[in-house]
Write a sequence for this structure.
């Protein structure tokens, strides 16, 4: 298949592009480079050094003989989107190209507005390009498990059968997301479901859990193919951050009471889920939702797993929760759709964590400890310190 | 109370501002004038002549002695929003200031993107201004019954009690809106509900039905206080359009089979609902939703009511439905909240329609018949004729 990976220079976009290429697909990547710009803005950076996209693509060609054409541009530039889709002629587009950090969206008004307009307009442009050029192109869209919030009923895969006053309907699963970022993905989902109704689009919305890990079979082939590993409080995700704190010998910091539960998955499952979604497309007019996560843990459970795996002494500390969320809540999510397509989950294990500890150890001198402290508070409507 | 009406130069914003002023409130209006700009863009215009906002305000002062300060600017300009809120210091803001026509949002990509960014960013700026300046300010936000779509279960007021696999929750009512415009309001609702959780905002979301009528007690005081009456296929709403077609002696045009059902209300009920919402504010942290509509009719029933009321001969014709929607569907909506606050609905009656026929007759020479034909088709991802 011809698959265009939007956001193909990112933490997951780049490993996905290589994985699909290794599995015999004709892959192209689209990226504006804005993720690297956020690093400049925040003074942060990947713990593991990463190469420029052109070097990545060149290295991949050297090693595998496979071409991954790169298109540099912004999805908010509709002309660029239309031109790129016309040039590449994808069968599927995998859409990672959104601002993806909840804390970034909560910095202040400008960052909230930026996140929502960037994400929503980029996705609208993708929908219109497909509406115009070829409505058969399958959109594989990255959403997040965070869209659901913390409902007191089981989280189904995007849709819910309801019975009310003796009548029945199948409705979009009601969502109560926890940040302006998560909200932007809810907006996207509603827009995409409408696109399926009016233009018979094919859409798979992947509500992804918190991803951990940094290595896939392809990133390990050469250091120049490495993907990023974020440890800062804005872009770093929880298990990766705990692993980094363990190696650095500082306490694993749990926000709030630590009984908050999150759905998670291994980076190696992310790339496989995307392959499965692409190779088994949604029908014309179908808005299909998969919960792309394999396990659920409380923050405490995650911290204890890292603590127990680490060969040295590790403390756990509790810090004020910068987020507004319930700490004691029911959480149970369904995740059978991808497994029924063939996913064999990698579960959180010592093996992976030991490997991560080694990767982190090799680059520990690159850490700026100040960046680990959360500075963005959900309760504030202005930037910290202003 | 001090009430700031955002979009106070519009079809409903202006009558609302006068009504609240007449009821003893200190009212200010905010408007960018963009609704008048849409007329220039589309070559359309109000059937009833309307005065400039400054003339309206001056006339209101002459007649009643009441001041309605007008602030001219765009809600997408955050500095303007903050400055205006700091200057006026409202107890409540009534937020009509969004692009409000479904067909306008479906013209093409640019109009979809404009509608969603304009509406979502304007509302985010209002939320942030209140988050920053005074979280006690009550937001009375105009949404639409069209957000719900056509569910096969009863439409409740914004929230739904669900039981699923033996567990219960109260969830946001699941929505399946019918245009990029309606979607923008769904996005707003999600953002506002989040604002209630993180900043303890007070929000009343009014899901309004299709409004008909052109006159309130205040607009009738002087021709210079008249509000607009739209008949064009983009901004004109259905009952008003049928009344105009009857007077002009052309067939009442029903889109599709005509069994589609809509929730409706009289313009005189709109202004009273807004007063009731303002005078009975939502609690801190409460996201309160009212269905602001009083009756439901199929398009056929509306056409027949107009046909029967009109003193002359009127034909009905069926044209291809430019929208994508179910024609045979269940529809039953709850609307008890505003009535329990004291609303005494005006029901669709001959009396109102006869009055409308007179108003239209007086201005029939201003109609451009070409503007009555629908040119925007939901199935197209590009502008008609391109």
């Amino acid at each position: 298949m011809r698959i265009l990976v939007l956001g193909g220079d990112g933490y997951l976009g780049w490993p996905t592009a290589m994985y699909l290429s290794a599995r015999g697909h004709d892959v192209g990547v689209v990226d504006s480079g804005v993720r690297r710009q956020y690093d400049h803005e925040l003074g942060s950076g990947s713990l593991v050094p990463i190469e420029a996209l052109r070097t990545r693509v060149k290295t991949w060609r050297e090693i595998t003989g496979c071409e991954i054409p790169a298109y540099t541009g912004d999805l908010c530039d509709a002309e660029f989107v239309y031109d790129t889709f016309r040039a590449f002629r994808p069968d599927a587009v995998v859409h990672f190209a959104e601002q993806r950090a909840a804390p970034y969206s909560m910095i202040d008004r400008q960052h909230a507005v930026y996140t929502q307009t960037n994400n929503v307009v980029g996705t609208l442009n993708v929908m219109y390009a497909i509406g115009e050029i070829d409505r058969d192109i399958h959109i594989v869209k990255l959403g997040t498990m965070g869209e659901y919030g913390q409902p007191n009923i089981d989280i189904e895969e995007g849709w819910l059968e309801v019975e009310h006053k003796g009548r029945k309907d199948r409705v979009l699963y009601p969502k109560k997301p926890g940040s302006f970022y998560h909200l932007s993905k809810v907006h996207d989902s509603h827009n995409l479901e409408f696109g399926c109704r009016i233009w018979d689009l094919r859409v798979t919305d992947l509500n992804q859990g918190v991803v951990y890990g940094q290595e896939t079979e392809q990133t390990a082939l050469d250091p120049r193919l490495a993907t990023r590993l974020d440890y800062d409080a804005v872009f770093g995700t929880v298990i990766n951050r705990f692993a980094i704190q363990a190696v650095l010998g500082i306490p694993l910091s749990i926000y709030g009471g630590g009984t908050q539960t999150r759905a998670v998955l291994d980076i190696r499952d992310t790339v496989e889920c995307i392959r499965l979604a692409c190779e088994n497309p949604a029908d014309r007019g179908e808005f299909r939702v998969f919960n792309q996560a394999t396990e659920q843990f409380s923050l405490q459970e995650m911290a204890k797993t890292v603590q127990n795996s680490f060969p040295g002494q590790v403390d756990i500390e509790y810090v004020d929760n910068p987020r507004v969320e319930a700490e004691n809540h029911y959480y149970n999510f369904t995740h059978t759709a991808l497994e029924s397509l063939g996913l064999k989950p990698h579960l959180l294990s010592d093996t992976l964590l030991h490997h991560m500890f080694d990767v982190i150890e090799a680059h520990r001198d690159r850490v700026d400890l100040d960046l680990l402290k959360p500075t963005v508070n959900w309760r504030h409507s202005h930037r910290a310190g202003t």
